[in-house]
Amino acid sequence: xxxxxxxxxxxxxxxxxxxxxxxxxxxxxxxxxxxxxxxxxxxxxxxxxxxxxxxxxxxxxxxxxxxxxxxxxxxxxxxxxxxxxxxxxxxxxxxxxxxxxxxxxxxxxxxxxxxxxxxxxxxxxxxxxxxxxxxxxxxxxxxxxxxxxxxxxxxxxxxxxxxxxxxxxxxxxxxxxxxxxxxxxxxxxxxxxxxxxxxxxxxxx
Length: 205
Fold this sequence. Notes:
Layout: E1 2-7, H1 10-21, E2 37-40, E3 45-50, H2 55-60, E4 66-70, H3 71-77, E5 82-86, E6 92-99, E7 110-114, H4 117-127, E8 131-135, H5 142-145, E9 151-156, H6 160-164, E10 167-176, E11 178-182, H7 184-189, H8 191-202
């Protein structure tokens, strides 16, 4: 059996549809009920729903053989997993945003609000810019509006939320998309099965 962790929500459903199209469908599958695990012994596959930010943990610790996770999670937390493929879904970008009239004062540390502290520190370290990180978990856009921070580092998809709050992208850090990852031990012991899935998957990407 291949145990696959899917992120809850529309993205997970899209990934299941993709895997189902290459023969990894599951008779039990029903995203409308509250069941968390769906297995099909005939197909040799088991799926379970996981909070998106937890997928990499389940894969790294071996509860799942494979998982689907955003590149932002891999960059932020550096889990000890194999990154197998870019599924080209959930495309967006990690970016620096600020008020439209923002001008950086190089005489003092830049105040950066973000939940992606590792990515933010790494990016500004590469620029040699001293920063002070303000860790937030939600409504990051409020920070520069209320003067809590100078800029934010966050995921930007359409940019609509930024525009509606008089903010704009100042710098793009890295493109983000959904990745298929594997547990390192599972890849060694279930290599044949994982390679078969990968081979079929490549015909759809």
